[in-house]
Amino acid sequence: MATATYPPPPPYYRLYKDYSENPNSAPEPPPPIEGTYVCFGGNYTTEDVLPSLEEQGVPQLYPKDSNVDYKKELRSLNRELQLHILELADVLVDRPSQYAKRIGEISSIFKNLHHLLNSLRPHQARATLIHIMELQIQQRKQAVEDIKRRREEAQRLLKDAYVTLDGQ
């Protein structure tokens, strides 16, 4: 019994049979997805919105105003986390049955830290793109300078060769 190594192509390849003669004969691509969609059983959205801590059922441990001093709040939460970890060590030694409460508090602090860091992601992405574009500009300027240098060198070599030929 013979078997094929590759499966046959999907049937929609026939839609593109005249593409080499007429590129406009191919069907238009589907429009981009907007809103919510389901992928592998999970619901996703195309909107890039960071859900609040309250929506996630986590108490917010830093001020709720829009002018948050991220550096100050991250340091404060970090110190609080260190303190709670030390208290957890004491609780585990003295009262092991009460560790679950401390673990919940530590989890809440971690979630607040992550939420603060995730709210800085758009700024980080912009800064990264600016840095990448500045590097690209620098590389292109260096490439232009290299081309100019090589052009001048080639012109000098041609001029020297022309002078040498005229002198003979």
Task: Lay out the secondary structure.
Elements (H helix, E strand, L loop, with lengths): L35 E4 L2 E4 L24 H25 L4 H21 L1 H47 L1
Antiparallel strand pairs: 1-2
Would you kindly provide a written description of the structure presented here, covering whatever features stand out?
With 168 residues, the chain is mostly helical. Helices cover 55% and strands 5% of the residues. The protein has helices spanning 70-94, 99-119, 121-167; strands at 36-39, 42-45. The protein has a two-stranded antiparallel ribbon with strand order 1-2. Strand 1 (36-39) and strand 2 (42-45) form a beta hairpin. Helix 1 (70-94) runs antiparallel to helix 2 (99-119). The radius of gyration is 32 Å and the shape is flat. The model has no long low-confidence stretch (mean pLDDT 89).
Which characteristics define this entry?
single chain, 168 residues, mainly alpha, two-stranded antiparallel sheet, 2 strands, 5% strand, flat
In short:
Belongs to the Mediator complex subunit 7 family. The protein is mainly α and 168 residues long.
What distance separates the N and C termini? 80 Å
Strand content: under 5%
Question: pLDDT under 50 segments (min length 5)?
Answer: none
Provide mean pLDDT, rounded: 89
Instruction: Indicate the percent of residues in helices.
Output: 55-70%
- Provide the gyration radius in Å: 32 Å
Shape designation: flat
By helix and strand content, what is the structural category? Answer: mainly alpha
Q: How many DSSP H or I helices?
A: 3
Number of strands: 2
The topology string of helices and strands comes to EEHHH
The oligomerization state is single chain
Q: Major sheet: size, sense and barrel closure?
A: 2 strands, antiparallel
Arrangement of strands in the largest sheet? 1-2
Subcellular location: Nucleus
Family: Belongs to the Mediator complex subunit 7 family.
GO molecular function: transcription coregulator activity
Organism: Arabidopsis suecica
